[in-house]
Amino acid sequence: MSDGHAGYPKARGPEVVTQRGLYYEELQVKVLYQHRPGRTMTETDNVLFTTMTMNTQALHLDAAWSAEQPFGQRIMNSMFTLATMVGQSVAQLTQGTIVAQLGMSDISFPHPLFHGDTLYTETVVTAKRLSASRPGQGIVVMEHTGRNQNGVVVGKASRTALFWLKPHD
Q1: Structural domain tally of the chain?
Q2: Among residues 88, 153, 76, which one has the least CA distance to residue 113?
Q3: Residue 139 placed within a domain
Q4: CATH code for the domain in which residue 147 is found
Q5: What Gene3D superfamilies does this protein map onto (predicted)?
Q6: What are the contacts of 45-54 at 24+ separation with CB within 8 A?
Q7: What is the pLDDT along the chain (169 residues), one digit of tens a residue?
Q8: Euclidean distance between the first and the last CA atom of the chain, given in angstroms as a whole number
């Protein structure tokens, strides 16, 4: 038996707690959601992601060439950084409660992330409203910020998503 849209079975017998994200009503504007644990970036992460996505940028693949560039070493692929920032928010905010991602904007990478750095992400809900065309759903705007282990901002992105409203029993 399903709860209708989240795809999780309803509890029978002893109480069951299923990890999930937050429904539209549970998300609070201007609250800082910190996502833990952090994720330490490895050379393997960088090379695999970069080659899987057919990105031939030497800044991610060529250690000798990158040593002669302004940062003196290879930098993490910014798309991996972005994907990890969004991924770190899933368990706390969107697992089973999101309908769809609608878009992203204002993406920036003000400081590079290097092999061995640990990425920590936090999210602030900046706006939300009920959907005018999709009953039972609401639109939420989130601002993700990624920081390295020293607290330096390495990535920012605004993300708009469609969320389920909390089901009524």
Answers
A1: 1
A2: 76
A3: yes
A4: 3.10.129.10
A5: Hotdog Thioesterase (3.10.129.10)
A6: 45/76, 45/80, 46/74, 46/76, 46/77, 46/80, 46/115, 49/77, 49/79, 49/80, 49/83, 50/77, 50/80, 53/77, 53/79
A7: 444 455 556 656 788 878 899 999 999 999 999 999 999 999 999 999 999 999 999 999 999 999 999 999 999 999 999 999 999 999 999 999 999 999 999 999 999 999 999 999 999 999 999 999 999 999 999 999 999 999 999 999 999 999 999 988 6
A8: 13
Residue 114, in any domain of the structure: yes
Per the structure, the complete domain to which residue 31 belongs is given by 24-42+76-164
Residue matched to tokens 């092999």: 115
pTM of the predicted model, to two decimals? 0.87
> What does the block give as tokens for 96?
């089973």
User: CA torsion sign, 94 to 26 to 145 to 19?
Assistant: negative
